[in-house]
Amino acid sequence: MKKSWLKLVAPLFVIALIGAACGDSDSDSSTSSDTESSTETETTTAAPETEDTVLEAGTEAEGDVDTEVEEVAEESSYGGSVIIGLEAESTGLRPWEDACSSPCLVMMTSMIDRMVERRADGTYGPWLAKSWSPNDDYTAWTFELQEGVTFHNGNPFNAQTLVDMFELQKVGAVAAGVVSAAKVGEVVAVDELTVKYVLTGAHSAFPAFLYGVGLGGVFDPAAANEDFDGFSMNPVGTGPFMMESRDLDNETIVVRNPNYWMSDGDGNQLPYLDSISFRPIPDEGTRLDSLLSGTTSMMQTLRQGTIRDARAAKADGADIVLLEFQGNNVGGGQYNNNNPPLDDVRVRKGLTQMNNQDAVIEALGGTGISLPGTQWFSPDSPWYSEKVAAAWPKFDYDAGKALIEEYVNDPERSDGKAVGDNIEVELSCPPDPTLIAAIQVIEQLWSATGMVDVNVTNYDQQTHINYALGAPPDFMGEHGAHCWRWSSNDDPSTYLNTAFAPHTLGVAAAYGLDGIFSPLNFPNYFDIEMFGWLVAAIGTDVFEERYALYEMVMMRLARDVPVWYSGHTATMLATESNIVGVNGWLLPDGTLGAGFPSAVARWSQVFIDG
Amino acid sequence: MGKILIVRLARLIATLFAVSLLTFLLVEQLPGDPVIALLGPEGLYDWDTVERIREELKLNDPTLVRYGRWVGDVLQGDLGKSYITDQPVADAIRDRVPVTLELALLATVIAAVCAVPIGAFSAYREGGRLDRLLSGFTTAALSIPGFVAAIFFIWLFTLKFNWFPSTGWNRITDKGLWANLKTAILPASALALAPLAVNARLIRADMIGTLKEDYVLSARAKGLKSRYILMRHALRPSALTAVTVFGLQLGGLIGGTVVIETIFALPGLGTRLISAIYQRDVLMIQGITLFVATVYVVVNTAVDLLYLALDPRIRRQ
Predict the structure, then answer these.
(1) Considering the domain boundaries, does residue A203 fall inside one?
(2) Of A271, A547, B31, B148, most Cβ neighbours within 10 A?
C-alpha cells in the first residue's frame, strides 16, 4: 500500500516542477538579442573618446562600489538586451501629463529625449537643444535645436514641435505646475531650428527646467493630440528606443530606434543595445534575488537596506557591479511651523539636537552608505557649504533637552499649556519598515527627556502627502513632525523657490506679494528676507553670487530649523558585470554626462561587453 | 431547482450591491486624494490645474452622487476609467484576470492533487508513524504564511537550483504553456500550501469515518485491493466537506493572491488593486472589488449546486 501511494504522489510534483523547469528559458537576458537586426553582427566600435575625466557622481561611500562617473574603457559593441527590475510600474508615459518618479524615468528616458542634459560637473549641456542664450534680463531664452532629428513615427522635430508641445504642457496635469514655476508665458518658433521661451519674469537658471521631463521631455504633439490616452501606453519621442510592447505591471519592451539622431565619438550610430525590458518588481528582496539569479540583468533601488544587501551579496562572490549614487536628495523631515509647539524655534531646534543622526541612519540600514545631512546639498555638490555644515545644530542631547526645558518652563509658551506640562508632538512616517525603525529611534530619544509626549503615526504615502498639504485655500496641513525628503540634483531654484514661497495667500498679501504663494511650502515656514535671496538668485547667472545667496538661505534654515535631516539618500543601479556604459555616457558635445543620478540610467550608450 | 437558482441570483445581486457600496464608502473615508497621485508634488504648484482636474473627474460631487453615477454606468456595462492611468477599468480587469485566475486554479489543483492522497493515506494509516509525519507536515504548512513560503521557494528554486525565474509572468498566448508554467509554479505552490493542508486534514477526518462504514468492511471482506477501496468506495463520500471548502478557497484565493503577486511581481488583479488603493483610484478599486466579489459569490453558488449533485440526500430535502 505504501509503495503504491508513493508512486501516485511523487510523480505529480516531479512532473510539475521538472517539466516546468525544462521549458524555454526567459532569463538569458543580457548576452544576446532575440530580435532580427542588421546591427546584431559582430560590429565593434571604439569607445567614445573624451578627455580623461573622472568626476564624482555622488559621495564616495565605503566598500567595493562604484560611485564615480568615468570614461568607458571597454570596446563598445552592438546587440544584446538588458532586463532591468524597477521599483514600481510607471502609471503613464506622457511627460506632460503623468507624474514620473525614478522608476518611471528609467523607462521614459529610453524613448523620450530631454532638451538639455546634466553634465558630471553639475552644469547643463546640450541634448536636443544644441545651444542656448538668454536676453539681458533673463526673461527670454533662445535655443538652437539639433538638426535631422525625427520622431519614432518619422515626423520631424523642429521649433514648431516645441510650440505645439507647449499647448499641451500649459494645461498638462503635471507640466502646468512646472510652467508656472518656470514662469513660461509663451513659446515662439523663431525659425525652423530656433525657438524662444518667453518668460513672465526673470529666471537665470531656466534651462534647468528643460532638463525635467515635465517641460523638457520632447514628445510628438501630433501623436499626442491624435490619441491622448493611448500615448500613455505608446509614447512617441525621439529617444534611442521605441515601444515594442507594454504589459502593465509585468513587462515593457523597447527596441532600438534605427533612425536615432545621435552617434558616438567615432560616428557609429547609437544606441548599441537591441532592446531593453523593464520589469516592475515592487518587493526589494525579490528584485535583488532576480538579479542574483539571472532572471534580470540589472536593477534599481532607492533603499539603503537593499544597497547593504547587494553589497553583502557582492562580498559573497556575486558577479555584479554596484553603481551607487548619493546626490543632493536628503532624507529627514519637516516641522509644521504653523502649529504650536513647533512654531517655536526652541522646540524645533531642541528636537533636532536630540535627534541622533547616526542612530537614525543605522536604523535605516544606511551605515557606511549614507552620509549625515546638514543642508540640502551633498558634500559633492557645487552648492555645498562648509559654513552651513558647521552651523547646523548637530546631535547634542543635553543642549537640545535644555531648549525644550526652557520652552516647557516658559509662562508664555505658544501651546497655551501650563508651565511644566509636557509638549505634545505628532511624529509621522509612511509605513516602510526602515522608516518605522528610524522614527522609533527618534521617538525614544525625545520621550526619554520626560518632557515630550510623542504620538507616532504611520500613513500610506498618499495620505502622508495629503496630511502635510492640507486643504485649499490655505494648505496649512495638520501635521506635526513629518518625515520627508528634500532637494534634488537639479538647479536649487527649481525646488527652493517653490518650497519657501509664501504658504498662504494671506501671508503673501501681508508682505505685498499678492498672488505669489506655493502649496508646496509644506513646513509652512516663510521668511521674507530669505525669499528675497531666493528671488535674487534667479536674477543672476554668476555662480559666485548665486552660491552666496543659497549659502545664506541654508544658514537661515540652520538658524530657524524648519526642517531636519537624517542622511543623504543613497540610490543604486546594480548590473551584471558585462553591462557597460551606464556610468560613462557622453553629451553630444563630448562632455561627460551625470552618470546615474537617483538610479536613473541613460540608455543610448549602454552596451554589453563580450 | 429553478427556484433555488432564482433565490441564489437575488442573493448574488444583493451581496454585490452591498459590497460595492461598502467599498465605496470605505475608500471615501480614507484620507488622501487621487489628484495628488495623479500630479505628483510638482504638479500641485499650479492649484488651478488641480481644481480643474478635480472638476473633470467630478471628485467635488457628493459621495452618494458619485456612487449613484457609478452604479448607473455599471448597469450599462461601463466600469469607468482609472483616474491615474486613464485605462478603462474593464480593460485592466480583462488583462489581469487570466493571471490571477490561473494562479488560483493552479493553486487549487496543486492543493487538491496533493491533499487527496495525503488525507487518504493518513486516514488509512490512522495513528501510525506516517500519519503523524503527514499531520506534522500539514500543521507546518498551515502555520507558514504564504509570503514566507514564497521567499523560501525563491531562495531554494531560484537562487540555489536556478530552476525557475523569481519574478515576471510569461503569458500562455505569447510564450506557450511551458514558459507560462515556469513563471506560475512557484507562486501557485506558495499559494497552495494553506489550502492543501486544510483539505488534507478534512479528507483525513472524513475518510476515517468512512473507512469504518459497513460497506467498506464489506468491500474488504470481498478481498478488494486497498487502493481500489479508498479511491472507488471511500473517497467520494469523504470528499463532500473538502469540495465545499475548495469552492470557498477558490474565491478566497482570487482575493488572496495580493501578497503573492506582489512578491513575485505578477501582473494580476492583486497587484493592480494594491496600486489602486495607494493611489486612491476609486473606480479601479470598485471595479476589481466588484469582480472579485462576483467570482466569489458565483463560485460558491456553483459549489452549493455541486453539493446537491454529489449528495442525493440533500437533493431530496
Answers:
(1) yes
(2) A271
The answer to whether residue B42 neighbours chain A at the CB level (below 8 Å) is: yes
Q: What range does the domain containing A228 cover? A: 38-319+577-608
> Within 13 Å of residue A249, how many CA atoms lie on the same side as its CB?
24
pLDDT tens for A292-342 read 999 999 999 988 889 999 999 999 999 999 999 888 789 999 999 999 999
Confidence of residue A34 (pLDDT cuts 50, 70, 90): very low
Q: Nearest chain B Cα to A494, which residue?
A: B42
User: pLDDT digit string (tens) for A129-182?
Assistant: 999 999 999 999 999 999 999 999 999 999 999 999 999 999 998 899 899 989
Which secondary-structure segment (H or E) carries A307?
helix A304-315
As a whole number, mean pLDDT of residues A562-584 equals 93
Average of per-residue pLDDT across A458-481: 83
Read off the amino acid at residue B299: V
Pull the grid cell for residue A239. 529617444
* A93: β partners: none
Amino acid at position A319, single letter: D
Q: Is the domain of A279 the same as that of A172? A: yes
A20:B227 CB<8 A: no
Domain count, chain A: 2
Q: And the C-alpha cell for B311?
A: 449528495
Helix locations, A272-376, DSSP H:
284-293, 304-315, 345-353, 357-363
**Residue A256, domain CATH:** 3.40.190.10
The reply to whether B59 touches chain A by the CB within 8 Å rule is no
pLDDT, mean of residues A344-371 = 94
Which of B45, B164, B278 shows the shortest C-beta gap to A518? B45
Return the pLDDT at A569: 87
Tell me which residue in B32, B53, B124 faces A463 most closely, judged by beta carbons. B32
Tell me the residues of chain B between 152 and 211 that have a Cβ less than 8 Å away from chain A. Answer: 154-155, 157-159, 162-171, 175-179, 181-185
CATH code, A435: 3.10.105.10
Across the A/B interface, how many CB contacts are shorter than 8 Å? 218
Question: Which residues of chain A have a CB within 8 Å of the CB of B110?
Answer: 16
A2, A5, A232, A461, best to mutate vs chain B, most B CBs in 10 Å: A5
Query: What pLDDT is stored for residue A175 in this prediction?
Result: 92
- DSSP 8-state assignment for residue A172: -
Residues A50 and A170 in one domain: yes
The reply to whether A490 and A587 lie within a common domain is no
Across the interface, do B45 and A498 touch by the CB < 8 Å criterion? Answer: yes
Give the distance from CA A191 to its chain's centroid.
34
Distance CA B211, CA A59 (A): 72
Interface contact flag, B130 A2, Cβ < 8 Å? yes
Which chain A residues have a beta carbon less than 8 Å from that of B117? 5, 8-9
Shared-domain flag, residues A198 and A61: yes
Domain ranges of chain B: 99-267
**Residue A270: CB atoms within 10 Å:** 23
